[in-house]
Predict the 3D structure of the following.
Amino acid sequence: MNTLTVDKPTEKKDPPNTKRFKLIQPQADFIRTEKRYPAYVSAWATGKTLAGIGRAMYLSENYPKNLGMIFRREYVDLRDSTVKDFEEYTGLTVNSEREVKLPNDSTIMFRHLEEMNNIQNVNLGWFWIEQAEEMETDEQFFKLFGRLRRNVGYQSGFITANTNGHNWIYKLWKMNNLEGSVLYEAKTLDNAHNLSKDYIDSLEILKLKRPNIYKRFVENSWEEADVTDIIINPTDVIRAIDKQLNIVPPYKRIVSIDVSRFGDDKTVCYAIENNAMLAKDEWEKKSTMESVGRAVLFAKKHDIKSFAVDEIGVGGGVADRLAELGYQVISVNASERSSGSMYYNRRAEIYQKGSELFANGMVSIDKDDTDLIEQLSWAKYKTVKSNGVYQVEAKEDIKKRYGRSPDNADAFLNGLWALPQAKEVKQMDKYEKSFLNIRSERYGRDVLYV
């Protein structure tokens, strides 16, 4: 078993398998404070999770027969992030009941929002809410607050979080409206000695491209509100409606298809040329081969020989068949690792790329595609662990919030991402350009071939 220690180095030799971590001062102070209600609200890559685990272990090991709860809003985040980090940092194993028992009879429990009603008869010695900004109000904090009555000599409720405007965390800790509280803060570069040069360099790109996000998640600003969670700004989407783009060589066209089969979601196709939406088709409840046939007819209508296909699930069969028919197929696997150090996976890279194109005024969409216009601003950022990489919230979470899946947004953004990989279309002479400009004007497409 590994041993987690956050003490300063001493002359005494560490036990076998000891893990030591070089903490920044706010982390160390947060772990050891005697205040009952500390908060560590800090930027990306400042070790919030490590600090929370360190304090949880400190309280559990130093107060025998203690009972503590680590709380997260969503079960998936609790399972895939918090529990895994805890096991990695401590070397302890969380059992099937999502509990850890220590040799001194202390117990640590892991719970999520939907289980809040099941803790009414639990007497806690401590609790920790990770990513507390995910909670919209202070209700969960004070419910747990009311369970701090275990007779172990000291009780504590603490949180780790990113800033999120003047929310409930700001009011309780930043404005000092909670008796017995203390706030510790840190910026990303306060932890520069633990970060790679590539990661630090990537932050300069973020500072230039998305200054609001940089201020909030790197500089730990409290003045950047919820809107910075939205990946594609609604204002940028509105500006893209029927926007005139100068279509210049090289000309590239692609059909992007997000496939569904006999489910509630739709199969959506977009024809895209140099970031301008040419047309859309969509259907429900079709077999794989029926979807292939309809996609091929759609592509032929717009003289397109390249496809971007979401290959997860039934999309894999569509991609294989299109390749057999001789089309260029660019497979999109949202869950695969991205080549960029800033992104959790390909989905995050795709959404961020789309965000940059919209922000820079380089996209044109149709005013009649109300589904796309609405869905483009549905997805929000999430932060994974403490390493500050981009993650997009799960499609299931978006569907839960809005009642339907963002199929149109996913299909269109996949196409924008894949378009640079599409084969070039032959160069047009001035007569073809003149004809296409007349056709664009006739059909209300506000693009200009130059």
About this structure: Residues 7-11 have pLDDT under 50 and may be disordered.
